[in-house]
What we know:
CATH class of the largest domain: Alpha Beta
Shape: elongated
Number of domains: 2
Bound molecules: 3,4-dihydroxyphenylalanine
Strand content: 15-25%
Number of strands: 10
Order of helices and strands: HHHHHHEEHEEHEEHEEEHEHH
CATH topology of the largest domain: BirA Bifunctional Protein, domain 2
Amino acid sequence: xxxxxxxxxxxxxxxxxxxxxxxxxxxxxxxxxxxxxxxxxxxxxxxxxxxxxxxxxxxxxxxxxxxxxxxxxxxxxxxxxxxxxxxxxxxxxxxxxxxxxxxxxxxxxxxxxxxxxxxxxxxxxxxxxxxxxxxxxxxxxxxxxxxxxxxxxxxxxxxxxxxxxxxxxxxxxxxxxxxxxxxxxxxxxxxxxxxxxxxxxxxxxxxxxxxxxxxxxxxxxxxxxxxxxxxxxxxxxxxxxxxxxxxxxxxxxxxxxxxxxxxxxxxxxxxxxxxxxxxxxxxxxxxxxxxxxxxxxxxxxxxxxxxxxxxxxxxxxxxxxxxxxxxxxxxxxxxxxxxxxxxxxxxxxxxxxxxxxxxxxxxxxxxxxx
Length: 370
Ligand code: DAH
């Protein structure tokens, strides 16, 4: 027993050192072969040479592959250590080869320069996108209204003249048509007059659609894209976003309108914002108002966005009885309020953007800031 113990004690260290030598040798070999491959890569002139090199080292019978196969002869303790090293080197080499292959396949003429430059560079970073400021603010406002029990409805951007104008008391001969310079769409001559199409000029086009579909009581908002044939400047663009709101029920009055608007503004700006209510004319509300806020870009002094220190933010009013009737409800029984918020304006106020055209410009220097 004793003898056997002694023997094993003696034999073991000897084996260990053989194995240590073996694994140290392997470490060296792996590192050397990596250096050799990277050095040879730099000497490549032609794409064919690249493919030969890849085969010579990383192919099924390649030198590097063969070397990694001998890991299995190491001891249980050494195998994971050397295995890990071999794997790391393999990944690194594969990355270098795959980068180069990408360059070759993209057809770079000065392959050699690319190779010298790129040989050990990491593969391209994958960029992750993010929401556009319009979407960020729209989501925020939608959340506020959802918390007040409003449903959120989408609507067509290519809208009929009927819903965009006629249901809202703007008949074809009404001077209010001039208030919105519209993109009219050529339609087939078989289209009925009421089916003529326009790019919707406002989200109010959803008012009667919503009443028709859901009746009363109704609390809904309609966020979305609108279009007008504008001469563009710092505060006008041909494409912009609005968020329309509509509440229909029995006994709805201006107090309901003011309460909802105040809750909204307090939530959006998270601070006291000065507001003013002026009379405003819109054919589909009676009475109609303009709710202005003190400009948050210049602090009310006057700037390129606001002009005189006030920004028209929320035109609103009590829904005109005819509109309620157009939706199929009895205006004697139901009343309501509506508002059409300039979502794009709100985005500009929140982030201090002084030119509306930046929002649609697609300029990454701008968009990446959000
Ligand atoms: N649709 C109007 C526009 O774009 C804005 C508007 C005014 C909407 C009054 C409303 C409202 O709901 O009550 O100019």
